[in-house]
Structure formats: C-alpha cells, structure tokens
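Predict the 3D structure for this chain.
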Amino acid sequence: MEKAKYTDVLKIRDAVARARESGMDISEYTLRRAIRSGQLPCRIVGRTYLISWQNLLKWVNCEDGNDNSL
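Done. Predicted structure below.
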C-alpha cells in the first residue's frame, strides 16, 4: 500500500515542509513557540506534537482574531 503524501494531521517538521511547499516560510521554532503560547492547538502523543493542517492555516491567516499586536 502506498503511503499518502499529505495528511491532515502532521508532525511539526512535516508541517514546516508542507508550509514551505505552499509558499509560507515558517520555521520549526515559530511553530513550537505558537504551540507553547497556546495560539496553535495541537495534540501531544507521547513526545510527538501533531498539528492539524486546517488549524495551521487558520493560525497563519489570523482567523481566530489573535493577530500580532504592536
């Protein structure tokens, strides 16, 4: 059976790679910081952080209303 190239739930490194392929320059550090601050929801399974691609897109597009304030 062939493994699907993309899924809706990604590890942090996979999320960064997919984001870069989509034209978004996001680093692992930025995603980890967003997770730690509670801005980007995720699931923790063992020592693995799993991110929903849809949640990542919502976070990048500031759909939750929590845009960076200066």
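The longest strand covers residues 48-52.
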